[in-house]
Design a protein that fits this description.
CATH architecture: 2-Layer Sandwich
Number of helices: 2
Helix content: 25-40%
Oligomer: single chain
Structural class: alpha+beta
Shape: elongated
Strand order of the largest sheet: 2-1-3
Number of strands: 3
Strand content: 25-35%
Largest sheet: 3 strands, antiparallel
Order of helices and strands: EHEHE
CATH topology: Mth169, Chain: A
Number of domains: 1
Length: about 80
């Protein structure tokens, strides 16, 4: 199984990297971009046998290590 975790800053948290990318895009004349938010993606290969077990384990990984849940949200996709 594969777990894809998308981690992003919560709404209201300043995204300085996103602001820098937005500024760079504007300087390159990409004027149709209103806002940029930068996140990260973690892809795990798991040997779990069922989706529920995999999701529970990955959720624990996110809560304990992969995401800073004070300022970040995460979404998990499990692919069999």
């Amino acid at each position: 199984m594969t777990a894809i975790i998308n981690i992003s800053l919560k709404n209201g948290v300043l995204d300085s990297q996103g602001k820098a990318v937005h500024h760079a895009l504007k300087s390159l004349q990409f004027n149709n971009v209103d806002d940029v938010r930068v996140g990260r993606q973690v892809v795990l290969t798991l040997n779990a046998t069922d989706e529920a077990t995999a999701r529970a384990e990955v959720t624990n990984m996110c809560e304990e290590l992969l995401a800073n849940t004070v300022i970040e949200d995460y979404e998990i996709e499990i692919i069999a």
